[in-house]
Amino acid sequence: MRFSLNNYFPAFQHILLSYFQMMGVVLSSGNMQQSLTDITGENDVKTLVDSFYNKVNADELLSPIFNDFAHTNWELHMPTMYSFWSSILFRTATYQGRPWPKHSILPVNAAHFSRWLSLFKQTVDEHFTGPKAIEAKNAAASIADTFQNRMQILRGNGPGKINLL
User: Fold this and answer.
1) Domains within the chain, CATH numbers bracketed
2) Chain centre distance of CA 30
3) How many CB atoms lie within 10 A of CB 154?
4) What is d(CA 26, CA 22) in angstroms, rounded to the nearest whole number?
5) Burial of 113 by CB count in 10 Å (0-12 exposed, 13-18 middle, 19+ buried)?
6) Quick one: pLDDT at residue 145?
7) pLDDT computed for residue 101 by the predictor
8) Which residues contact 136 (CB under 8 A, 6 or more apart)?
9) Could you tell me if 119 and 55 are in contact, meaning their C-beta atoms sit under 8 angstroms apart?
10) Does 23 have pLDDT greater than 60?
11) Per-position b or e across 37-63, b if 16+ CB within 10 A of its CB
12) What angle do CA 43, 46, 49 make, to 5 degrees?
């Protein structure tokens, strides 16, 4: 029978590993979950963006905004998002757009920004750990906060705040 630690809650893996080592059981690297690393380049940015927008497209609150209201062309949008996040995280200056005007007309509120940020942080935490991962979450929080405040001002509601990290 093949046993894999991947079937168990990650927090308990170290306990199981210690027990198996004490019992003389040798575990191959295939039995352990791959440890997380930091965001280090374009491939990681692509992983982050692809995984995040998969969540967005499956989300009952955000998907209608992107797909039904904005009619996002995902084939065009994804490379733009790769450039956007690469520019933010690695200062590549490959993104030359102006994101605010496109977002200013969306029918969104604090709940949308909160969900967007929550999904983004969750995606980062599922794939990465380290200083660049923290930077990505902080940048997303800053973007969400800024856009939410701008929208509230445009709508005459005054600025609001969402929870940062």
Assistant:
1) 1-35 (no CATH), 42-154 (1.10.490.10)
2) 26
3) 10
4) 10
5) buried
6) 94
7) 81
8) 39, 48, 85, 88, 89, 120, 124, 128
9) yes
10) no
11) eebeebebbbebbebbbebbeebeebe
12) 150
Render pLDDT for 83-133 as a digit per residue (tens, 0 to 9).
999 999 999 998 988 888 888 888 899 999 999 999 999 999 999 999 999
Higher-confidence position of 96 and 30: 96
For residue 37, which of 127, 124, 121 has the smallest C-alpha distance? Answer: 127
- Comparing 34 with 90, the larger pLDDT belongs to 90
- Find all residues with CB under 8 Å of 118, minimum gap 6, and list them: none
Task: List, in order, residues 6 or more apart from 123 with CB less than 8 Å away.
Answer: 48, 51, 52, 55
pLDDT at 1: 39
Burial of residue 94 (number of CB atoms within 10 Å: 0-12, 13-18, 19+): middle
- Residue at 66: amino acid letter: F
Average pLDDT for the chain: 83
